[in-house]
Structures are given as structure tokens and as C-alpha cells.
Amino acid sequence: MTVAGPTGDDLVEMLAALANPLRLRIVAELAGGRDYVSHLARVIGVSRPLLHMHLRKLESAGLITGSLELSDDGKAMKYYEVTNFSLHLTASAVAEAAKTLSRPDPEEGPGSKERS
């Protein structure tokens, strides 16, 4: 049985999300266990708004998930954890993923092929 890897579009999104050093640090921190935003911001040393921006990118790529929970004192707290993702990059895996790409080349932008 062959396990299919991510589609080309998913792979591009995942690699783009992981291509940022701060997001790599976030994933590394969450690999040790789930954490809430305020604590995670303090541990990593960034503001909560900046952290939220990076968390959204990671969550959109399917690398982490977030859940809102109530603390014992009734305060809403957003917890994040790493999803069970696995990337094994080989030339053949990239070639297979590339066959499923549906988005235009981001370097060229939409419609650029008509001009060439």
C-alpha cells in the first residue's frame, strides 16, 4: 500500500510556512507539548500580535491546530498544538506533488504566461 504525500499546493503552503525561522521556533516549541498564546509569546520572545500572525500561517498550512478553552477562573485561552504531520522530501516525492499543482507560479503572477 502506498501512502500519498501532500498535493503540490499543500506542499508549497507547508514549505512556505516552515521557511520562516520564527515559525520553525514555534513548531519546535509546540513539539514539546501544547501551549497557550500568552505563554508561548513570552517563551519565544515576541509580541502576541506578531505571534498570532505566524500561528495563523502555520494553522492554515495544517501544521498546527488551535482550540479555545476556558481557564478555571473563566478566562478564555487559546491553546495550540502541532498536528501529526510528516514530510519526507525526496526528488520523486517532489515530482509527484508537482504533478498536482493548480496554482500559478507565484514569481510570475496570474496572467503572465499570456504575455510571454
Question: What brief labels describe this structure?
Answer:
elongated, disordered C terminus, 116 residues, alpha+beta
Topology of this structure?
Blueprint (H helix, E strand, L loop, with lengths): L7 H11 L2 H11 L3 E2 H8 L3 H13 L3 E7 L5 E7 L8 H8 L13 H4 L1
Antiparallel strand pairs: 1-3, 2-3
Helix pairs in contact: 1-4
What does this structure look like?
With 116 residues, this protein is α+β, with helices and mostly antiparallel strands. The chain contains six helices and three strands, in the order ααβααββαα. The protein has helices at 8-18, 21-31, 37-44, 48-60, 91-98, 112-115, and strands at 35-36, 64-70, 76-82. Strands 1-3-2 form a three-stranded antiparallel β-sheet. The radius of gyration is 17 Å and the shape is elongated.
Shape: elongated
Number of strands: 3
Question: Which consecutive residue ranges, at least 5 long each, have pLDDT under 50?
Answer: 109-116
Radius of gyration: 17 Å
Q: Give the SSE order as H and E letters.
A: HHEHHEEHH
Question: Which range best describes the helical content: under 10%, 10-25%, 25-40%, 40-55%, 55-70% or over 70%?
Answer: 40-55%
Alpha-beta content class: alpha+beta
Number of helices: 6
Summed over residues and divided by their number, the pLDDT gives a mean of 87
Termini, distance in Å? 43 Å
Biggest pleated-sheet summary: 3 strands, antiparallel
Q: Give the strand order, joined by hyphens, for the main sheet.
A: 1-3-2
* Share of β-strand residues: 5-15%
